[in-house]
Every structure is written in C-alpha cells, then in structure tokens.
Design brief:
single chain; mainly alpha; 74% helix
C-alpha cells in the first residue's frame, strides 16, 4: 500500500469517528429533553457525551496528523473525563436535597441518614 492509501484510510476513519461522535452527542441531548427523572437525565448527559467527545478528539488527531494536535487533544479529553462525573454528582445531590428526586425509585438510599434536619421552632 502506498502513502496515499493510508491517508485515505485515515481520512475515512476520521470521518466515521466524527459521525459516530456527533450521533452520540445528539442522543445525549435528546435524552436530556426526553427523560423525565433526574438520574436518567444525568446518565444521558454524561455517558454518551463523554464517549462522543472522545471519538471526535480521536478523529481530530487522526485527520490533522500532527503530534502537537494530539498533545492538545489529550488534556481536553482528560478534563472532560474528570469534570463530567463530578458535575453529574453535584446535580444529583442537589436534586436529592431539593426533593425533586423520586425517592420511591431509589433502590438504596445511602443519603437518608445524612439529611439535615431543620432546627426546632422556638429555640
């Protein structure tokens, strides 16, 4: 195979990865709109979105074929990988504290004992 064949294969692979990544990001946004409860929305917001971003980052590095680009894409993905679960955890915790989470749907309620009790009236 010649270099031209490898370049065509790399470009085609990058195109497929961008399309799959974009579809995953699209399903994440549709899931945010369609799902009714907070845990389902959090799942839709984090899992396909992070995987879609990973595929798009790989496609960018593959299509541009430069080490500086690959070195730039790695921290972008690592920061996304670190912040997506953290933000989902914080949103879920806030929904639990606000009472907007359906407690009947919980299998195990690990936060039941850590609820803050309101101060007693009058002192």
């Amino acid at each position: 195979m010649t270099d031209l064949d490898w370049l065509a294969i790399a470009d085609t692979t990058a195109l497929v990865l961008v399309l799959i990544g974009a579809l995953l990001c699209l399903t994440a946004s549709i899931g945010l709109l369609r799902f009714r409860d907070v845990p389902s929305r959090l799942h839709a917001a984090t899992k396909p979105q992070v995987l879609g971003l990973l595929l798009i980052c790989i496609a960018i590095a593959l299509s541009l074929r430069a080490w500086p680009v690959a070195a730039f894409v790695v921290p972008v993905f690592l920061i996304q990988l670190a912040t997506a679960p953290l933000s989902a955890h914080m949103v879920g915790r806030a929904a639990y504290r606000n009472g907007t989470l359906d407690e009947g749907a919980l299998v195990v309620d690990e936060l039941r004992d850590s609820r803050e009790t309101p101060p007693a009236a009058g002192g």
